[in-house]
Amino acid sequence: MFILVSLTYFAYMIRFERQKLANGLRVIVHRDESTPMVTTNILYDAGSRDEDPDSTGFAHLFEHLMFEGTRNVPLFDVPVMMSGGENNAFTNNDLTNYFITLPATNLETALWLESDRMRGLDLAEERLANQKSVVIEEFRQRYLNQPYGDLLLLLRPLAYKVHPYRWPAIGMDISHIEKADSISARKFYDRFYIPSNAILSVAGNVDPDRAFRLTEKWFGDIPSGLKSERNLPVEPEQKERRELTVYRPVPSAHLIMAFHMGSRMSRDFYILDLLTDILAGCDSALFPAILVRKKELFNEADIYLSGEADPGLVIFSGRIRDGIDIRKAEEAVWSELDRLAAEPVKAADLDKARNRFESQQLMSYVSVANKAFGLACHEVLGDADGINREQEQYMSVTAEEIASIAGLTFRSGNCSVINYLPGKRRETT
User: Fold this and answer.
1) Cα–chain-centroid distance for residue 421?
2) Active site residues
């Protein structure tokens, strides 16, 4: 007998203290005495959406340059490793994030290192050339030299016409990185890598007062800089279906369907995030069960949110079985999407999705690194305490809300389609 067990709604709160330095640096500290470790997470409010359309890829390039070294620390990784720590970074369309996890006794080392590269990054031509080569090779390997690698490069300018989300975080074209020089790099660094454009979050076995004192010690005398006002173009409403057919030397056809949705802080985000989990969040979800196993049209079928701060995309991605016409496959996807608006999702499916979210959140926030990033991420979105309100947003989603948003989102006029077919390289519209 199958029994659906509903997890008890937990009142798990990530408690924190918050201060702001005179130079504009926002500092958040979460104390967790259950671990001997601490994570320092510094988030810069600068992603690929902040780039000039003629000079894309700079945010990602700087993710690499920040590990190249400073006047004081030629090799950033060495003192981190000597302190028993590890570090990494990532860039997306909205932000660039750096983090160090190490024994809590070595907190000051992490703060010193981050302050040093905020004020004194070495942008000599030789170091810049080294990282340009790395990024260019990454671009080629990830997007140009592997099967299906250019899907993102094709999808974004199809779905977006004016907003800078029309290029991926790595950039629009290799040539933009190739022409980067120390002058343009210095301009980007001075504009975005400043205290007033950064959030520092510290999570772990640390006394908040000590963390604030050390932050003031290492960051307090860095000039604030002038935080740029973000004035991005608003993407106009899409009213007609867009379609692109491309042929590439790949083993099987691939179908991509992208739909515009609301911003990260809209109610739409939470409803659609839960809906995509119902559709494809596990092997027994609706899309794998119906499109893959029952109808045998796809080898794999997924649907997910792009997750940007500004209005983003709901993206269906499906690898089509040999011998199946791509139009027939798309019709089957539409049949399932249309049903969502016409028939409320089953209570059991909604409960399972809520339970998966709840358990995943509990597991995620065992990590101090995840808590540090989560606090910084919510702070840049508007308020760090949003991390404690997010669960309620998901748990309160109703079947009626899902049906309503499905009807508004999954429309032909709101859809951009890529038919990615095996064959000699060419494109048609």
Assistant:
1) 28
2) 63
Residues composing the chain = 429
Distances (CA, A) of 226 to 27, 73, 119: 18, 26, 14
Strands 415-422 and 242-248, how do they pair? parallel
Residue 71, pLDDT score? 85
Q: At what angle do helices 208-219 and 107-119 cross, to 10 degrees?
A: 30
Contacts of 81 (CB under 8 A, 6+ apart): none
Instruction: Give bridge partners of residue 136 from the DSSP assignment.
Output: none
pLDDT score of 12 more than 80: no
Beta bridge partners of 395: none
- Name the percent of the chain lying above pLDDT 90: 90
Q: What span, in angstroms and rounded, lies between the C-alpha atoms of 393 and 382? A: 16
CB atoms within 10 A of CB 217: 13
Q: Cα 59 vs. chain centroid, distance in angstroms? A: 14
Domains detected in the chain: 17-219 (3.30.830.10), 242-428 (3.30.830.10)
CB 416 within 8 A of CB 266: no
- Degrees, nearest 5: CA angle 376-60-414: 80
Q: Are strands 96-103 and 254-260 parallel, antiparallel or unpaired?
A: unpaired
Please report how many Cα atoms fall inside a 13 Å half-sphere around the Cα of residue 202, on the Cβ side: 30
Give Cβ neighbours of residue 122 (< 8 Å, ≥ 6 apart).
Answer: 68, 69, 70, 71, 74
Q: How far apart are CA 205 and CA 81, in angstroms?
A: 19
- Residue range 235-265, pLDDT digits in tens: 999 999 999 999 999 999 999 999 999 999 9
Mean pLDDT on 3-10:
39
Closest to 399 measured CA to CA, from 348, 355, 353, 344: 344
Give the other-Cβ count within 10 Å of 354's Cβ: 21
Reported as a single tens digit per residue, the pLDDT across 172-226 is 999 999 999 999 999 999 999 999 999 999 999 999 999 999 999 999 999 999 9
pLDDT digits (tens, 9 = 90+) for 286-335: 999 999 999 999 999 999 999 999 999 999 999 999 999 999 999 999 99
Taking all residues of the chain, what is their mean pLDDT, rounded to a whole number?
94
